[in-house]
Structure formats: structure tokens, C-alpha cells
Amino acid sequence: MSGESRCKRCGQCCQQGGPALHGADLALLQAGQLTQEDLVTVRRGELALQPMAQTPEPVSSEFLKVSGKNGSWCCLFYNEAEKGCSRYGHRPVACGLLDCTNTGPLLAIAGKDLLTRFDCIVTDDPLLPVVHEYEALCPCPALGEIAGERQLGPFAPERLEELSQLVRQDLAFRGRVTARFSLSLGQELFYFGRPLFQLLAPLGLQAVQSPQGIVLTQR
Q1: How far apart are CA 93 and CA 111, in angstroms?
Q2: From CA 39, how far away is CA 214, in angstroms rounded?
Q3: CB-hemisphere CA count at 13 Å for 54?
Q4: What's the sign of the alpha-carbon dihedral 164, 170, 176, 179?
């Protein structure tokens, strides 16, 4: 019996997040069945859920995944009313393998042959050197280590200010680039991933506006 025939269409897998993309999924972008605006880059060092996992772990290498919607990770293509996929006929490889009663095939490809933004950016894209500049100036900090620090208690004021400076630098770079190239939010998330302040939010750090600019507060 196939995974499709056993599926109860509960939608839980789709609501937990869109799939990571693998090498074979590049054909979906080349055919226009997926676009850059449908995707978000998960950068090395971010905390992310691996397939079927319950606890986020640091990402050892970057990958692309289908974006969420409505401020959640729920897959962009999940149709709540019909409890199904709006791109079912052109779904990524991982979606075709997903079967909550038999996770073996999906786990077998987890972390292997993953697509990155660099696989999908043409060499003459004017944003390609900008992405490399961003990675040099604003690398994703080791969020696993930061999470470990947070578990030990509140950050010292000096550490909180250090992280706040990283957030401000990240936002300033993004602001300049999005204005220069008139990027949509979807394009920003593809080229640069999520802003650092969003990555820090699950660790109890909230970005707020102050007279000195954006600062982080602890919850």
C-alpha cells in the first residue's frame, strides 16, 4: 500500500513547515513551477527542525525550503479548506516521500543533496555578489551556542548589546539592498534568509525600537 493511500489528510505535516528542496527539485524552478519568492533560505547556524524531529537543532549547511504563510511555518501551498496541496502535481521530492506511517524513505534523503540559493542564482544576477558580501559582513551567529547561553540565565548587558549590534547591522544591510534593488519580502527571504532578530525571537529575545535604534530585550 502506498503512502498516498494511507494518508489521512490531517495536514499536520504541512502545517509544521514546507519541505526542504533537493537536487531534483531544481527542475521545478527551471520550469517556473516554483519561484524564488516561494522559497526561504535557511542559513548555516540557524536552528531548524529536521524531518520528524521535535526539537530544533543547528543547521550545519544551508538549504532552501518552501516558505510559510500568515506568519507561521505552515507550508505556503497547503490549502486548509481542502486539506490538501495546491501544487500537488508539482510538489517537491520530499513531499512525495512523506508518509507518517513509514518515515524511512524521507529520513533516507534528509540532509542529502540539498539545494541552496547559490544553485538557483544565475551567474550574471547582480545580487549574487551582494549575497556574498552579506555572508561576509553578516554571517549567521552560532544560534545553538546562544541558545545554550540563554538556558543558563539572562544575558549580561554587554552580551545583549553585542547581539543588538549584530541585529542592527543585519537590518541596515537589508534595508540598503532592498531599497536599491526594490526587492519584495519574498525575494529578500530567498537571497538573505530571515533577519537575525526573527532567528533570535524563539530564544526569548525581542527587538524593540529605542532612541538608540533597535535593541534586544529579554523575556
Answers
A1: 13
A2: 27
A3: 0
A4: negative
Query: What is the domain range of residue 163?
Result: 121-218
Give yes or no: residues 129 and 80 share one domain. no
Distance CA 54, CA 104 (A): 17
| Cβ–Cβ under 8 Å, residues 23 and 109 | no
Burial class from Cβ neighbours inside 10 Å (0-12, 13-18, 19+) for residue 171 reads middle
Query: How many whole angstroms separate alpha carbon 203 and alpha carbon 218?
Result: 9
- What angle is formed at CA 67 by the lines to CA 62 and CA 69, rounded to 5 degrees? 150
What is the three-class DSSP state of 41? strand
- pLDDT < 50 stretches in the chain: 1-4
Q: Which grid coordinates are listed for 197? A: 532578530
- Please give the pLDDT value at position 102: 80
Based on the domain organization, do 45 and 143 belong to the same domain?
no
Strand partners, 41: 64
- CA gap 97, 102 in Å, rounded: 9
pLDDT of residue 4: 46
Measured distance CA(53)–CA(188) in Å, rounded = 28
Number of domains in the chain: 2
Model pTM above 0.85: yes
DSSP 86: T
Phi, psi of 94, rounded to the nearest 5 degrees: -60, -35
